[in-house]
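quick one, 277 residues, struct below
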Amino acid sequence: MQENRIRITWYGTASVRITAGESQLLIDPFFPFPESRVKVDADAFAGCSRILVSHGHFDHIGSIPFLVHPDTLISCTNAPYRSLCRMGVAESHLHRIAAGDTFLSGDFRITAIKGNHSKLGTVDILKTLCSERVLRNRNGLIRKIRTIASCREKHESLCYLIDVYGRRILILGSLALAADTAYPEGVDLALFPYQGFGSLCQIASGICRQLRPAAILLTHFDDTFPPFSTEVDTAEFTASMKQHTAVCQLRHGGTLILESDGKCRVESETAKNGGRS
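---
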């Protein structure tokens, strides 16, 4: 039935809106840097008062202070809680949570699960800072580094399991899982943030084999905060999963529909599907 459809809209980075009937969730909303080729309308995140934060890095929380209105409630762990307070967000808008917590928002039942963040080694950081692209874009570089460095993850990454209309959606906070945590298997849709260091295809394939989701939506593969971010080629992973799991990739602002029978299809004509639907 149409009223049991779940709409998942991707805006860029890890920014996703999930809509089920009158209920909405906004996850990690972020406006790209002005110099990014990715553009998000100023009112793209309007109308959604419930925000979930997967972890405290700048590209997951840096835009939230601009989105707060009287009804806004932001669920997050200690590190982003403190960062958002420093940014001027009132504590009355913040809902401090931890792994293992379960709470309701409209028709959504939300479970916070311990996550893990993809490793960012010293060598990787130095390579990024000393890259030709960074050196070519030195204007305001120190200010950007300070702003990004002030938002810490503190080993508090979360995954979210969203239960709604009898369907399960798993949102990974980063392309990594905690070794000591049991994750739900066989969900209807898993969101993989396809960004980080190392062999992303190998890492994502390993996670897919462990979780066995019916479908995957790739996020975070785009270049939204240059010169530090990069656009990641997802073709290798999409091809490797073709015979196993549906892998979907949207254009910015595109929407994926999770039907009442668990099947996924792309709604927006501007979106593209990288696998079976």
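Residues 269-277 have pLDDT under 50 and may be disordered.
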